[in-house]
Design goal:
Blueprint: H1 26-41, E1 46-48, E2 58-63, E3 71-84, E4 87-92, E5 100-105, E6 108-114, E7 120-126, H2 127-140, H3 151-165, E8 187-188
Parallel strand pairs: 4-8
Antiparallel strand pairs: 1-2, 2-3, 3-6, 4-5, 6-7
Length: 189
Amino acid sequence: MAVRPVRIYGDPVLRQKSAPVTEFDDSLRALVADMFDTMAAYNGVGLAANQVGVAQRVFVVDVPQEEGPNERFAVINPVLEKREGHEKGEEGCLSMPGIVEDVVRAESLWLKGFDEYGKPFERKVSGYLARAIQHEADHVDGVLFTDRLSIVTRQLLRKKLDELIRGELPPGYHPAKGPKGPKGEGASS
């Protein structure tokens, strides 16, 4: 499989509402495998297809759990329902390197979707996994985590966002290898 370049803030594909997947074929499974490789290379916990330039309703997550193995799976054509509670937590985004802010998200929800083989699933998710899933589901709708911030906070970030649009990446960012930092700090996707 391959590591694909992550699209950076300002790229129009990040604002596109992605198309539903209708073919569960080898090309979809190759995309999912590439997305897992890319997410790992960039030290992320989630990645949406439009972040690698593919405007399809696909995302992957690899979220550490307090106990047991990581929650690692792909979601095709996600539907989020029955959101419950609210919690504020730190989020970042692989498409917006150097920007981390607190975002309010639902504490738990029901996730419906398909795996990369077309098998439907439904499950309740909560905590950090729910946060990552909401972040990625926003991506496939063309919504970025900064859209969920207050107007004042967005204004304070304007300079950094404008720098990203101009292609000025933060010091220490290495697109081919991914940003430095421990995996699992904040919801970076």
